[in-house]
Specification:
Blueprint: H1 2-9, H2 15-36, H3 39-59, H4 63-81
Helix pairs in contact: 2-3, 3-4
Length: 82
């Protein structure tokens, strides 16, 4: 019984969870930067934020979010290219 409790206490968090959290915070920061600082910098940050968030949603098989983020990446990429 004690061993079961101890094994649950040392549960490791996957790296993609931290990437998703950083991505979520970065999306908010990118939105602010687009509106108040610089369009190009905000788009770059938003692009990176979406890109680093995708592995978490692939692992959790949230395919609808993966598709949505892929569309957002394509939109950001089109702004970076033009």
């Amino acid at each position: 019984m004690i061993q079961k409790l101890q094994s649950k206490a040392y549960h490791t968090v996957e790296i993609d969870v931290y990437m998703r959290i950083l991505g979520s915070v970065s999306v908010i920061a990118a939105y602010f930067i687009v509106l108040h600082v610089n369009l190009l910098l905000g788009v770059v940050i938003h692009f990176i934020a979406d890109l680093i968030s995708i592995p978490y949603f692939v692992r959790t098989k949230s395919w609808d979010v993966v598709i949505m983020l892929t569309f957002l990446l394509a939109i950001s990429l089109s702004k970076l290219v033009s």
